[in-house]
Design a protein that fits this description.
This protein is mainly α. It has 5 helices and no strands. The protein folds into 2 domains: 40 residues; 37 residues, no CATH class. α1 packs antiparallel against α2 and α4 runs parallel beside α5.
Length: 101
């Protein structure tokens, strides 16, 4: 066993109170384990939450292709009717998508 019951309870308690990468790193250092080992244990215990990537503006990432599909759907067009539009700047595609919804 890599972790005894006391260590497991400690890791879970600490992580649940502050679910950040810094907590994982601190626990790894304290227990002389790798961060991957700590994350693995937290995952097996069902408490680890993977961080979600956000853009610089705090939005969830979306591809240009998805923006074009959204625009096609909003306009009632078939797939690929706006082929080539995905080459437009992303901010223009977002503005267009938001305008047609």
């Amino acid at each position: 066993m890599n972790y005894n019951e006391e260590q497991t309870q400690y890791i879970v308690k600490e992580y649940v109170s502050d679910p950040t990468k810094a907590t994982v790193d601190r626990l790894a250092e304290e227990l002389e384990k790798s961060p991957k080992s700590i994350i693995g244990k937290l995952s097996r215990e069902g408490v680890y939450r993977r961080s979600v990537y956000k853009t610089k503006t705090g939005e969830s990432p979306v591809t240009k292709e998805q923006l074009v599909r959204d625009i096609e759907d909003a306009l009632g067009l078939e797939d690929e009717e706006l082929a080539g539009l995905e080459k437009s700047p992303k901010n223009i595609l977002k503005h267009l998508r938001d305008s047609v919804f």
